[in-house]
Structures are given as C-alpha cells and as structure tokens.
Amino acid sequence: MSVSPASEPAPQVPYFFLSYAHTPLLSSRRGANINLWVERLFDDLCGHLLAWTALRRDSDAGFMDRDIRSGDRWPDQLAEALATCRVFVPLYSPRYFASVECGKEWSAFQQRLDLHPEGGAPTAIVPALWSPMREPGGLPECAHDIQYDDAAFGPRYRQEGFYGLMKVTSMRSHYQRATLALARRIMEAAERLPPVRPSAPPDYASLTSAFHGEGAPRSDKTAARRLRLTIAAPDLSHLPADRRTEPYGHTPQEWNPYYSEDGGRPLAMHAMELALSHGLLPEIGSLSDHADRLADGGAQDAPSVMIVDPWITAHADSKASLGRIGRLDRRPVPVVPWNLGDPQTAGAEHELKRNLRDTLPDRTGPQSVSHVTSLEQFRRNMPKILGSATRNFFRTTPTYPPPGTPEPRPRLKHTEETDDKRP
Questions:
Q1: Residue 148 belongs to domain spanning
Q2: Where are the alpha helices (DSSP H) in 252-374?
Q3: How many domains does the chain have?
Q4: pTM above 0.70, yes or no
Q5: DSSP structural state of residue 27
Q6: What is the CATH number of the domain that holds 117?
Q7: 129 — phi, psi (to 5°)?
Q8: Looking at the structure, do residues 49 and 139 belong to the same domain, yes or no?
Q9: Cβ neighbours for 126, distance < 8 A, ≥ 6 positions apart
Q10: Of 211, 336, 337, whose CA–CA distance to 281 is shortest?
Q11: Are 35 and 86 found together in one domain?
Q12: Which residue, 110, 358, 378, 404, is the most exposed by fewest CB within 10 angstroms?
C-alpha cells in the first residue's frame, strides 16, 4: 500500500547547518566582502541537494545566517535551525576556531548528539576546509576524531581549501569536484538511519563555546589567561530620549556602534575573538555585572578592558558607576568606539566628550582613553589595548614573597683562574 504525498511525514529540515566564521569587511570601499564567497559555496551545496533529493525549497536544503541581523532576534533563529538540522557542517579555518559564536553553534549541535546517542554518530558533523589548517594538532578536542579530508575531495583541496579553489579560475574543476563530494557526504549523513532527532531549541545566550576552556586547543591551554571584558553601554530599555535604536540590543553585550559595517554583529564578539587569538580567555559582562568587583579592586585579579559607549554618560546611575571606576588607580583600560557616521553622535560630540572627560579622566600611558572611529580601526588597535591591559595587570598586581630573610643574590666568585682567562 503506497502512502499518498499528503500523508507523508514532514522531512526534518534543514538538511544541513553551515557554520562559518564571519570575516571582517575590508576598510577599502573597493575591497570585496569575503563572506559572499561563503554564500556562493552554500548556494552550490543547496543546488546539488535539491537535484539529488525530493526537497522542495532551498531553505529545506540548508541554513546559514547571511540574512540575520541584530534586530531580527538572530539567536532564536540560529537556535531553531541548530535544533532541527540533520547535519552540522563547520567550515574549518584558523578564524573559525577562534570564534566564540562558532564554538556555541558546535556546542548546540553536540548537545543533540549527547541526548540521542543512538543517532549521534560523529558522522553527523561533516566538516569542510575553508582555508588550510597549518597546525592540525591545534584543533580543539571536540574535533580531534572527526575526519575533514579524504581523496574524494581532490588533490588540491587540502592545500587550498574551498576559498583558494574558488579564487583561482584555473582551479574551477577542483572546486566543482570538492563541492560535489561535500554535498554527497552531507546527503549520506542526512539519510543515515537513525537520524539525529530534533530537540528543543537551546538557550543560545547560555551556551558555552566548545572550542575554549576545557575544549581549547591543547597548544593554547597552558598559555591562556583570563581577561575581564566589560561592555559599558545601555540596552534598549535604558536609552536616552530619542536616541536611535539600531546600535543597541536587549543587553549591553549586543551593542554594535558600527552597525552599518558588519551586518550587525555585536562589538563584544569582535573583542572576544581578538582576545582568544592572543591567548586570553575573556569573561564578558555589562557594567552592572562588573561594577562592584571593579570598584572593590576586582580588576587586580585579571587584565581588564572596558569598552565604553559615550551615550552611557547620559544615564545618571550608569555615569556615577562609571565615574567610580574611572577614579581608581587600577582601573580597566578604557576603549571608546566613536562612530561619527552616526548623525546623533556627531551632533552631540562636544557634550559627550565633555561628559567622558568628567567621568573617565584622560591619563597618559596604558590607561589612557582610546577613541576608535571605525570597526577596522577597532580590530587593528585591539591587540595593543590587550597588551596594555596585560602589562598593567602584571605591573600593578601585588607580589607576595615567601616569609623569612631573603637570600642574597648569587655572585660569581673572583678567583685567580678567572683573572687568567680575562683578555
């Protein structure tokens, strides 16, 4: 007895979730958006799957976050796709494993594998190389036993990754072969029985990265140090009257002053990725989360950076809290993103700068306020700021020598033999 199409169960879609690290836009206007190449790969994979299966729409074939913006409740959309997709496809690159967001996506899918071990074979994770991984031993522990290369992808794939194959015209045939092989692996994993069953969407905000902490690359574990990263910005419920809402979210951590430059990604995500790439494990929180600890000298237990929205000085309580921290001898290194492309910020520039001078007195050296006028400048200067925070932490942290009389420093004894060896 055949089953009518109307009574067939709805397929579990999307077939695959493409997890990739967003590449910052180039500062030059003529620079290409590298993320568009990821979209091309995604479209090609969806096209192959539509040709090979009975899927009805490209949205049934795959999911990527190219159309998600900060105002579209992107965590909910990501969580829903991660809870229902059949296959998880991470695009490996050095930037991917430095990304907290990508680590959260991996964690969300891994939770489904752990809940349903009968359908949670590692083959439900089908990785692909976006750019070459020069240090395979540096992969996080969660990725150690998952194959990401085989002969079916062609001889140039491991050397170049998908990005390299796409950018060189003469390698078009290599790209086509690798894309077909990846689509075939996705389809085989999706059709494998039993499938990875859907689950309730995870609480995306509470997810931890699978790549950091206990899951960090082995080579990074011993070098990692804590960093306290404080976001001193208002949320949507604490904005000044008539302040435009585009840069803000439901929490201070969602603030993005350069909302027109990188598709709405929170500035905290850029800062966290840069910190991780420099061997620091960031502890991110709002001004209210960290204010008491910082004011009580909590900045002494870790390097500390505070990213400050000038508009927070328009809120009396936040300004007072910021002022208490600004007067500390061991205050965090402050960074002030200053987007004069925002008409309201440009119009209130003099007043905001006066409020900042009163609240965070400028200082010389590593504790001075940095005014950062673009996302590209923020990413370029952030390593210097992290270095200043680390040096400041070690310079001002009290030392506790062992009790007792200190031993004299060792000295080379003066002997006749040493005199004879002198020139």
A1: 10-206
A2: 267-277, 287-295, 316-326, 343-347, 349-359
A3: 2
A4: no
A5: S
A6: 3.40.50.10140
A7: -85, 120
A8: yes
A9: 16, 87, 88, 89, 182, 185, 186, 189
A10: 211
A11: yes
A12: 404
